[in-house]
Design brief:
Layout (H helix, E strand, L loop, with lengths): L51 E9 L3 E7 L5 E8 L6 E5 L7 E7 L8 E6 L4 E8 L9 E5 L5 E7 L2 H9 L7 E6 L2 E9 L5 E6 L10 H18 L1
Antiparallel strand pairs: 1-2, 1-12, 2-3, 3-4, 4-5, 5-6, 6-7, 7-8, 8-9, 9-10, 10-11, 11-12
InterPro entries: LOR, Tubby-like_C
Protein name: Scramblase family protein
Length: 235
Amino acid sequence: MNTPPIPSHAAQGSDTAVLDPIPSSPPANPYTSHGTPQGGAAAPAGAFGGQNYLIRRKVFKIFGAAFHIYDAHGQLAFYSKQKAFKLKEDLRIYTDEQMTTEVLTIKARNVIDFGATYDVVDPQSQQMVGSLRRRGMKSILRDEWLILDANEREIGSIKEDSVALALVRRFLTNLVPQAFSGTVGGHAVCRFSQNFNPFVSKIQLDYSMDSQDLLDRRLGIAAAVLLGAIEGRQN
């Protein structure tokens, strides 16, 4: 009787075969609430891992606007500056006011922003994080954005809180603060709440409902800055 050959991964002279190692699961997204940026001169540890942020928009009539993004402890986590009179939106997010380290780039694909798509890129690796696309026609009555992943696949949306309140803001008074809800795969992942202030625009960003870490936090930060920039330009 012929003896079958012993596989190369089996131990010679032993009745027990050495099994191939079980493949490990893919690494968790480092830009969620349970992770921090890894490697290089990226954002400081934990900067993208917070649950709550405050985005404060300060307007300079000639030079544009500046965005200070604070964490839940009131510490400056990020800083962004919006240039005035730019035909094509190009926003950069840094770790501090000195703009020493750039951590996100937000660029509009087209000059006309009606239904524009804004690409969010990691400048350290030059990799696409995802995109945010404004739904032009639908946003006439109620602001709505699509969330796209790095492969241009639609994964979620950001919508103004209600049609009724949206109509009040557009046709009666802009004194009613805006609020937006973000979803991914039908699950709530974030909420943007505007605080009314005639001099300084503030947006509260809350990730606490995203217990499954479905949304890359970098896209949420980019969306908050874009909402502040677009809202500020429209008012």
